[in-house]
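Hi R.,

Here's the chain you asked about this morning:
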Amino acid sequence: MNTRFLETFIWAARLSSFSAAAERLHTTQASVSNRIAALERELGVTLFTRDVRCVNLTQAGRLALEHAEKIVSLTGEFRQTVSRREALRGTIRLGAADTIVYAWLPLLIRRMNEQYPGVSLDLSIDTSLKISQRIQGGDIDLGFIMGPVLAPEIYSAPLCIFESCWVGATGLDLPEGSLTLDDIAHFPLLTFSAGSQPHQALRAMLDAHGLSDSRIYNSNSLSIMTRLVAAGVGVGALPRVLVEDIIRSGEARVLAISPVVPPLIFHAVYQDRGDNALARAIAQMAREIVAETVNAWMSALA
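And here is the predicted structure, written out as tokens:
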């Protein structure tokens, strides 16, 4: 019996809604419906009565819920036991977007070395789209990418948010103070690769302001984009963490342009399989590091 199906059943029962359960589990409503249907076929009972607005447990469903909660709880304890440092061995095929590399990926790798000495690392740095495709194809075990990824049997949960900004070289011919998109329309705009979420958001922003003819320079190498910004090639719409170095060095400055560049939401993504304990453990480690990073930042502001 698939414990993920049981977990889906538990959340659907708690929320009285397949759609709410899908949102809680970062999957689709169709996937939730399929899991519940498969569980009902396996058990040979009807677990829910269904109507347009909500679902309700049947008598058999209420009986099943009590046992399902016990099984899921015990399964969690079991996973924690077998996922101890001594038990985790093998190779983790990890995919990450450039932004994660500039932020906290080195800290994660150092902590992996300390806590899981039996684990080797196969690291791929690529666009979020390509990493997503490789996770679904089984070529990467765990990805830290812009998401979510809504696909069958894929776990995708929010991990961290990066503030983005407009940034330009210090010597760029732009006045101080508040600016608009019209003020920078004659410059090339530097951002992520074509087809990425940030590129699409920038294109939509320009279209909404009647600036569809603006030039956008794309690259899947954000280090190249950062250097082009510092060289005064154009105005960047980039994560703040990527450009901190050239801002501190005085090569570039944040521009007060309205509308602002939307933040980037990154997800931990992996195949939702029972044998994927290593990916789950590293994803949990990443969540802990993100929490520590946020706490440290808040303490610095206090």
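One quick note: The longest helix spans residues 277-301.

Cheers,
M.
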